[in-house]
UniProtKB/TrEMBL annotation:
This is DNA polymerase IV. Binds 2 magnesium ions per subunit. The lineage of its organism: Bacteria, Bacillati, Bacillota, Bacilli, Lactobacillales. NCBIfam families: PRK02406.1. It comes from the Bacteria. GO terms for molecular function: damaged DNA binding; DNA-directed DNA polymerase activity; magnesium ion binding. Monomer. Mg(2+) binds at residues 18, 116. Its main location: cytoplasm. Residues 14-198 form the UmuC domain. One of its GO terms (biological process) is DNA-templated DNA replication. One of its GO terms (cellular component) is cytosol. Its EC number is 2.7.7.7. The record marks 23 as: Substrate discrimination.
Length: 369
Protein backbone atom coordinates (compact mmCIF):
# COMPACT_ATOMS: atom_id res chain seq x y z
CA UNK A 1 0.00 0.00 0.00
CA UNK A 2 1.17 3.49 -0.79
CA UNK A 3 1.93 5.74 2.13
CA UNK A 4 1.98 9.47 1.51
CA UNK A 5 4.16 11.33 3.99
CA UNK A 6 2.50 14.05 6.06
CA UNK A 7 4.35 17.31 5.81
CA UNK A 8 2.85 20.19 7.74
CA UNK A 9 4.31 23.56 6.84
CA UNK A 10 3.68 25.77 9.88
CA UNK A 11 6.30 28.35 9.03
CA UNK A 12 4.03 30.75 7.15
CA UNK A 13 1.79 33.57 8.34
CA UNK A 14 -1.38 33.73 6.27
CA UNK A 15 -4.25 36.21 6.55
CA UNK A 16 -7.65 35.77 4.95
CA UNK A 17 -9.69 38.95 4.62
CA UNK A 18 -13.40 38.75 3.91
CA UNK A 19 -15.58 41.85 3.62
CA UNK A 20 -18.77 41.78 5.71
CA UNK A 21 -21.94 41.64 3.58
CA UNK A 22 -19.92 43.56 1.03
CA UNK A 23 -22.45 44.72 -1.61
CA UNK A 24 -25.09 45.52 1.00
CA UNK A 25 -22.54 47.36 3.17
CA UNK A 26 -21.53 49.54 0.22
CA UNK A 27 -25.16 50.47 -0.46
CA UNK A 28 -25.81 51.23 3.21
CA UNK A 29 -22.72 53.38 3.37
CA UNK A 30 -23.78 55.39 0.32
CA UNK A 31 -27.41 55.72 1.28
CA UNK A 32 -27.95 56.58 4.96
CA UNK A 33 -31.70 55.96 4.57
CA UNK A 34 -30.93 52.25 4.43
CA UNK A 35 -29.18 52.10 7.77
CA UNK A 36 -30.78 49.78 10.28
CA UNK A 37 -33.09 48.31 7.67
CA UNK A 38 -32.96 44.88 6.04
CA UNK A 39 -31.23 45.33 2.69
CA UNK A 40 -31.06 42.76 -0.08
CA UNK A 41 -28.94 43.00 -3.21
CA UNK A 42 -30.97 41.16 -5.84
CA UNK A 43 -33.92 41.62 -8.14
CA UNK A 44 -37.13 42.84 -6.50
CA UNK A 45 -39.63 40.01 -7.00
CA UNK A 46 -42.48 42.53 -7.14
CA UNK A 47 -40.96 43.97 -10.30
CA UNK A 48 -39.89 40.72 -11.96
CA UNK A 49 -42.94 38.58 -11.37
CA UNK A 50 -41.19 36.59 -8.68
CA UNK A 51 -37.90 36.05 -10.46
CA UNK A 52 -34.36 36.66 -9.26
CA UNK A 53 -32.06 35.52 -6.48
CA UNK A 54 -30.42 37.15 -3.48
CA UNK A 55 -26.84 38.06 -4.32
CA UNK A 56 -26.05 39.24 -0.80
CA UNK A 57 -27.90 40.78 2.12
CA UNK A 58 -27.03 42.73 5.23
CA UNK A 59 -27.08 41.37 8.77
CA UNK A 60 -30.50 42.88 9.46
CA UNK A 61 -31.93 40.77 6.62
CA UNK A 62 -30.05 37.68 7.82
CA UNK A 63 -32.03 37.85 11.06
CA UNK A 64 -35.04 36.79 8.97
CA UNK A 65 -33.19 33.73 7.72
CA UNK A 66 -32.38 35.31 4.38
CA UNK A 67 -29.09 34.31 2.79
CA UNK A 68 -27.34 34.62 -0.57
CA UNK A 69 -28.55 32.31 -3.36
CA UNK A 70 -32.05 32.23 -1.86
CA UNK A 71 -34.79 33.13 -4.36
CA UNK A 72 -35.89 36.76 -4.12
CA UNK A 73 -39.45 35.51 -3.79
CA UNK A 74 -38.68 33.51 -0.66
CA UNK A 75 -36.70 36.43 0.76
CA UNK A 76 -39.68 38.69 0.20
CA UNK A 77 -42.01 36.23 1.90
CA UNK A 78 -39.70 36.07 4.90
CA UNK A 79 -39.34 39.82 5.15
CA UNK A 80 -41.78 41.93 3.08
CA UNK A 81 -40.34 45.18 4.45
CA UNK A 82 -36.85 44.35 3.10
CA UNK A 83 -35.41 46.82 0.60
CA UNK A 84 -34.33 45.21 -2.68
CA UNK A 85 -31.50 46.86 -4.63
CA UNK A 86 -30.42 45.53 -8.00
CA UNK A 87 -26.76 46.28 -7.30
CA UNK A 88 -24.05 48.35 -8.91
CA UNK A 89 -21.37 45.83 -9.80
CA UNK A 90 -18.95 48.19 -11.48
CA UNK A 91 -18.90 50.20 -8.26
CA UNK A 92 -18.21 47.03 -6.22
CA UNK A 93 -15.43 45.97 -8.58
CA UNK A 94 -13.81 49.38 -8.28
CA UNK A 95 -13.81 49.18 -4.49
CA UNK A 96 -12.51 45.61 -4.77
CA UNK A 97 -9.48 46.92 -6.68
CA UNK A 98 -8.92 49.64 -4.08
CA UNK A 99 -9.00 47.04 -1.31
CA UNK A 100 -6.37 45.06 -3.15
CA UNK A 101 -4.20 48.17 -3.23
CA UNK A 102 -4.47 48.32 0.57
CA UNK A 103 -3.36 44.67 0.85
CA UNK A 104 -0.40 45.37 -1.42
CA UNK A 105 0.95 47.95 1.02
CA UNK A 106 1.80 44.98 3.22
CA UNK A 107 2.69 42.24 0.76
CA UNK A 108 2.69 41.45 -2.94
CA UNK A 109 1.65 37.90 -2.14
CA UNK A 110 -2.08 38.62 -2.45
CA UNK A 111 -4.41 36.01 -3.92
CA UNK A 112 -7.92 37.28 -4.59
CA UNK A 113 -10.54 34.61 -4.04
CA UNK A 114 -13.41 36.78 -5.21
CA UNK A 115 -14.27 40.45 -5.44
CA UNK A 116 -14.34 40.82 -1.63
CA UNK A 117 -12.01 38.12 -0.33
CA UNK A 118 -8.28 37.54 -0.49
CA UNK A 119 -5.44 35.53 1.00
CA UNK A 120 -2.27 37.34 2.00
CA UNK A 121 1.07 35.74 2.84
CA UNK A 122 2.70 38.14 5.30
CA UNK A 123 5.51 35.84 6.52
CA UNK A 124 7.84 38.36 4.98
CA UNK A 125 6.10 41.71 4.55
CA UNK A 126 6.93 45.16 3.29
CA UNK A 127 6.74 46.80 6.72
CA UNK A 128 8.80 44.20 8.54
CA UNK A 129 6.02 43.58 11.06
CA UNK A 130 6.41 40.28 12.91
CA UNK A 131 2.83 39.82 14.06
CA UNK A 132 0.30 38.78 11.42
CA UNK A 133 -2.48 39.67 13.86
CA UNK A 134 -1.14 43.20 13.99
CA UNK A 135 -1.14 43.42 10.20
CA UNK A 136 -4.71 42.08 10.07
CA UNK A 137 -5.76 44.82 12.53
CA UNK A 138 -4.00 47.49 10.50
CA UNK A 139 -5.78 46.31 7.35
CA UNK A 140 -9.14 46.40 9.13
CA UNK A 141 -8.34 49.93 10.23
CA UNK A 142 -7.20 51.04 6.76
CA UNK A 143 -10.39 49.69 5.20
CA UNK A 144 -12.54 51.41 7.78
CA UNK A 145 -10.68 54.73 7.61
CA UNK A 146 -10.59 54.86 3.84
CA UNK A 147 -13.82 53.15 2.81
CA UNK A 148 -16.06 53.05 5.88
CA UNK A 149 -16.53 49.33 5.39
CA UNK A 150 -15.82 46.46 7.76
CA UNK A 151 -14.21 43.12 7.13
CA UNK A 152 -13.41 39.98 9.06
CA UNK A 153 -9.91 38.58 9.25
CA UNK A 154 -8.58 35.10 9.86
CA UNK A 155 -4.96 34.46 10.73
CA UNK A 156 -3.19 31.13 10.70
CA UNK A 157 -0.31 29.18 9.18
CA UNK A 158 -2.15 28.13 6.02
CA UNK A 159 -4.91 29.30 3.67
CA UNK A 160 -7.39 26.63 4.70
CA UNK A 161 -7.30 27.57 8.39
CA UNK A 162 -7.11 31.32 7.72
CA UNK A 163 -10.32 31.09 5.70
CA UNK A 164 -12.10 29.13 8.41
CA UNK A 165 -10.85 31.63 10.97
CA UNK A 166 -12.22 34.67 9.13
CA UNK A 167 -15.62 33.00 9.03
CA UNK A 168 -15.56 32.21 12.74
CA UNK A 169 -16.46 35.60 14.13
CA UNK A 170 -18.39 37.66 11.57
CA UNK A 171 -18.91 40.58 11.20
CA UNK A 172 -15.83 42.63 12.04
CA UNK A 173 -14.05 39.75 13.72
CA UNK A 174 -10.41 38.80 14.00
CA UNK A 175 -9.63 35.17 14.75
CA UNK A 176 -6.23 33.59 15.16
CA UNK A 177 -5.68 29.85 14.94
CA UNK A 178 -2.28 28.88 16.30
CA UNK A 179 -0.66 25.61 15.15
CA UNK A 180 -1.37 23.98 18.51
CA UNK A 181 -5.05 25.03 18.35
CA UNK A 182 -5.76 23.80 14.83
CA UNK A 183 -6.62 20.23 15.76
CA UNK A 184 -9.12 21.26 18.41
CA UNK A 185 -10.69 23.89 16.14
CA UNK A 186 -11.18 21.39 13.33
CA UNK A 187 -12.46 18.57 15.54
CA UNK A 188 -15.68 20.41 16.46
CA UNK A 189 -16.23 21.86 12.99
CA UNK A 190 -19.24 20.51 11.03
CA UNK A 191 -18.03 18.90 7.84
CA UNK A 192 -20.09 21.25 5.66
CA UNK A 193 -17.99 24.11 6.99
CA UNK A 194 -14.76 22.62 5.62
CA UNK A 195 -13.95 24.93 2.73
CA UNK A 196 -14.16 23.08 -0.55
CA UNK A 197 -16.61 20.41 0.62
CA UNK A 198 -19.65 20.78 -1.63
CA UNK A 199 -23.15 19.46 -1.23
CA UNK A 200 -22.43 16.18 -3.01
CA UNK A 201 -19.35 15.50 -0.89
CA UNK A 202 -21.28 16.27 2.29
CA UNK A 203 -23.78 13.58 1.36
CA UNK A 204 -21.05 11.02 0.72
CA UNK A 205 -19.22 11.96 3.92
CA UNK A 206 -22.38 11.56 5.97
CA UNK A 207 -22.71 8.08 4.48
CA UNK A 208 -19.20 7.39 5.77
CA UNK A 209 -20.32 8.53 9.22
CA UNK A 210 -18.46 11.83 8.99
CA UNK A 211 -20.33 14.79 10.46
CA UNK A 212 -17.54 16.71 12.15
CA UNK A 213 -13.81 17.15 11.80
CA UNK A 214 -13.15 14.59 14.53
CA UNK A 215 -15.06 11.93 12.56
CA UNK A 216 -12.91 12.61 9.55
CA UNK A 217 -9.80 11.74 11.55
CA UNK A 218 -11.02 8.16 11.86
CA UNK A 219 -11.34 7.53 8.11
CA UNK A 220 -8.22 5.94 6.58
CA UNK A 221 -6.44 7.92 3.90
CA UNK A 222 -7.01 5.23 1.27
CA UNK A 223 -10.74 5.15 1.93
CA UNK A 224 -10.94 8.89 1.34
CA UNK A 225 -8.86 8.62 -1.82
CA UNK A 226 -11.04 5.74 -3.06
CA UNK A 227 -14.17 7.83 -2.58
CA UNK A 228 -12.97 11.29 -3.55
CA UNK A 229 -9.73 10.90 -5.51
CA UNK A 230 -7.38 13.84 -5.26
CA UNK A 231 -9.89 15.69 -3.09
CA UNK A 232 -9.82 12.79 -0.60
CA UNK A 233 -6.06 13.14 -0.33
CA UNK A 234 -6.53 16.84 0.51
CA UNK A 235 -9.34 16.11 2.93
CA UNK A 236 -7.23 13.65 4.89
CA UNK A 237 -4.64 16.38 5.35
CA UNK A 238 -7.05 19.21 6.02
CA UNK A 239 -8.61 17.23 8.86
CA UNK A 240 -5.11 17.35 10.40
CA UNK A 241 -4.66 21.06 9.76
CA UNK A 242 -2.35 20.43 6.83
CA UNK A 243 -2.67 22.50 3.66
CA UNK A 244 0.55 23.60 2.08
CA UNK A 245 -0.75 25.32 -1.05
CA UNK A 246 0.98 28.65 -1.55
CA UNK A 247 -0.67 32.05 -1.86
CA UNK A 248 -0.71 32.58 -5.62
CA UNK A 249 -0.59 36.26 -6.53
CA UNK A 250 -2.59 37.49 -9.54
CA UNK A 251 -4.04 34.15 -10.39
CA UNK A 252 -3.75 33.26 -14.01
CA UNK A 253 -7.12 32.75 -15.59
CA UNK A 254 -7.70 29.07 -16.17
CA UNK A 255 -11.08 29.27 -17.80
CA UNK A 256 -13.60 31.61 -19.34
CA UNK A 257 -17.24 30.86 -18.74
CA UNK A 258 -20.69 32.31 -18.95
CA UNK A 259 -23.72 31.01 -17.15
CA UNK A 260 -27.24 32.25 -16.63
CA UNK A 261 -29.93 31.35 -14.14
CA UNK A 262 -33.49 31.45 -15.41
CA UNK A 263 -36.24 32.55 -13.07
CA UNK A 264 -38.70 31.04 -15.53
CA UNK A 265 -37.64 27.47 -16.23
CA UNK A 266 -36.71 26.60 -19.81
CA UNK A 267 -38.58 23.74 -21.45
CA UNK A 268 -38.67 24.37 -25.18
CA UNK A 269 -35.69 23.05 -27.11
CA UNK A 270 -35.53 26.25 -29.15
CA UNK A 271 -35.21 28.37 -26.01
CA UNK A 272 -32.54 26.10 -24.57
CA UNK A 273 -30.52 26.13 -27.78
CA UNK A 274 -30.82 29.90 -28.05
CA UNK A 275 -29.53 30.33 -24.49
CA UNK A 276 -26.62 27.96 -25.07
CA UNK A 277 -25.80 30.03 -28.12
CA UNK A 278 -25.89 33.30 -26.15
CA UNK A 279 -23.54 31.88 -23.51
CA UNK A 280 -21.18 30.62 -26.22
CA UNK A 281 -21.19 34.08 -27.80
CA UNK A 282 -20.21 35.74 -24.51
CA UNK A 283 -17.43 33.20 -23.94
CA UNK A 284 -16.05 33.63 -27.45
CA UNK A 285 -16.03 37.40 -27.05
CA UNK A 286 -14.25 37.16 -23.70
CA UNK A 287 -11.64 34.80 -25.13
CA UNK A 288 -10.87 37.14 -28.00
CA UNK A 289 -10.72 40.10 -25.63
CA UNK A 290 -8.25 38.26 -23.38
CA UNK A 291 -6.27 36.90 -26.33
CA UNK A 292 -6.87 33.33 -25.18
CA UNK A 293 -7.80 30.09 -26.86
CA UNK A 294 -8.99 26.92 -25.15
CA UNK A 295 -9.26 23.23 -25.92
CA UNK A 296 -11.96 22.04 -23.54
CA UNK A 297 -15.61 22.99 -23.92
CA UNK A 298 -17.82 22.43 -20.87
CA UNK A 299 -21.60 22.57 -20.74
CA UNK A 300 -23.36 22.90 -17.40
CA UNK A 301 -27.07 22.22 -16.98
CA UNK A 302 -29.05 22.60 -13.78
CA UNK A 303 -32.55 21.16 -13.71
CA UNK A 304 -35.64 22.22 -11.78
CA UNK A 305 -34.76 19.87 -8.89
CA UNK A 306 -31.28 21.49 -8.66
CA UNK A 307 -29.54 18.37 -9.93
CA UNK A 308 -26.60 19.63 -11.95
CA UNK A 309 -24.77 18.07 -14.83
CA UNK A 310 -21.47 19.13 -16.35
CA UNK A 311 -20.08 17.47 -19.41
CA UNK A 312 -16.97 18.30 -21.40
CA UNK A 313 -15.40 17.62 -24.71
CA UNK A 314 -11.82 18.17 -25.82
CA UNK A 315 -10.95 19.68 -29.18
CA UNK A 316 -7.99 18.76 -31.34
CA UNK A 317 -7.06 22.41 -31.71
CA UNK A 318 -7.57 25.22 -29.19
CA UNK A 319 -10.06 27.81 -30.32
CA UNK A 320 -11.73 31.11 -29.56
CA UNK A 321 -14.19 30.80 -32.42
CA UNK A 322 -17.84 31.26 -31.62
CA UNK A 323 -19.02 28.73 -34.21
CA UNK A 324 -16.79 25.97 -32.83
CA UNK A 325 -17.63 26.66 -29.18
CA UNK A 326 -21.34 26.96 -29.89
CA UNK A 327 -21.38 23.85 -32.08
CA UNK A 328 -19.62 21.73 -29.47
CA UNK A 329 -21.83 23.00 -26.65
CA UNK A 330 -24.95 22.14 -28.63
CA UNK A 331 -23.46 18.75 -29.45
CA UNK A 332 -22.94 18.06 -25.75
CA UNK A 333 -26.50 19.11 -25.03
CA UNK A 334 -27.82 16.75 -27.72
CA UNK A 335 -25.83 13.91 -26.18
CA UNK A 336 -27.50 14.30 -22.77
CA UNK A 337 -30.19 11.90 -21.74
CA UNK A 338 -33.55 13.39 -22.59
CA UNK A 339 -35.28 14.98 -19.65
CA UNK A 340 -38.71 16.47 -19.27
CA UNK A 341 -37.55 18.54 -16.29
CA UNK A 342 -37.31 22.28 -16.75
CA UNK A 343 -33.87 23.88 -16.85
CA UNK A 344 -32.96 26.61 -14.39
CA UNK A 345 -29.35 27.22 -15.35
CA UNK A 346 -27.18 26.87 -18.44
CA UNK A 347 -23.48 27.53 -18.62
CA UNK A 348 -20.77 27.29 -21.26
CA UNK A 349 -17.11 27.33 -20.25
CA UNK A 350 -13.89 27.01 -22.17
CA UNK A 351 -10.88 25.76 -20.19
CA UNK A 352 -7.42 24.46 -20.96
CA UNK A 353 -6.53 27.99 -21.98
CA UNK A 354 -3.36 29.01 -23.70
CA UNK A 355 -2.24 32.31 -25.05
CA UNK A 356 -3.99 32.96 -28.34
CA UNK A 357 -1.31 35.10 -29.94
CA UNK A 358 -0.03 32.57 -32.48
CA UNK A 359 -3.49 31.63 -33.63
CA UNK A 360 -4.48 35.27 -33.91
CA UNK A 361 -1.40 35.99 -35.95
CA UNK A 362 -2.17 33.12 -38.28
CA UNK A 363 -5.69 34.42 -38.74
CA UNK A 364 -4.45 37.85 -39.64
CA UNK A 365 -1.96 36.43 -42.06
CA UNK A 366 -4.45 34.23 -43.79
CA UNK A 367 -6.60 37.30 -44.34
CA UNK A 368 -3.69 38.95 -46.09
CA UNK A 369 -3.04 36.05 -48.41
MG1 LIG B 1 -17.69 38.53 2.12
Amino acid sequence: MLIFPLINDQSRKIIHIDMDAFFAAVEERDNPDLQGKPVIIGADPRQTGGRGVVSTCNYQARKFGIHSAMSSKEAYERCPQAIFISGNYSKYRKIGRQLRDIFKRYTDLVEPLSIDEAYLDVTINKLGIKSAVKIARLIQKDIWDEHHLTCSAGVSYNKFLAKLASDFDKPHGLTLIMPEQAQEFLAQLPIEKFYGVGRQSVKKLHQLGVYKGEDLLKVPEMTLIDHFGRFGYDLYRKARGISNSPVKPDRIRKSVGSERTYGKLLYAENDIKAEISKNARRVANALVQNKKVGRIIVLKVRYADFSTLTKRTTLEQPTAEFEVIEGKAQEIFNSLEESSAGIRLLGVTVTGLTSGKTELLLDLRSENF
